[in-house]
Amino acid sequence: MSLHLVSVVNSTSLIHPGFSLMNFDGDVFLFGQKGWPKRACPTGVFNVRYKQGELKLRPVSFCNDSCYLPPLRCPAVTQLAPEKPESCETEQYFIHGGKTPNNELSDRLYIMSLESRGCNKKVTLQCVEKELVGDIPEARYGHTINMVYSHGKRACVLFGGRSYMPLGQRTTENWNSMTDCSPHVYLIDLDFGCCTSYTLQELTDGQSFHVSLSRKDSVYFLGGHSLASNSRPPRLFRLRVELLLGSPALSCEILPFGLSLTSAIVTRLGPDYEFVIVGGYTSESHKRFECNTVVLDDSGIHIMTRETPEWTGEIRQSKTWFGGSMGEGSVLMGVPAEGRQALSESNYFYIVKLRQEEELGQTCSQESTDQEQEDSVPLEDSEEFYFNREPDELQDDDVDDDTYNEEDEEDESQTGYWVKCCLRCQVDINTWVPNYSTELNKPAMIFCSKGEEGHWVHALCMDLSEDLLVCLSQENTKYFCMDHMEVVQGLQTPPPVKLLPVKHPPMKNQHRKVPVKLKMSPAKKSFIRRLFE
Question: Which residues bind Zn(2+) 2 (predicted)?
Answer without folding.
Answer: 481
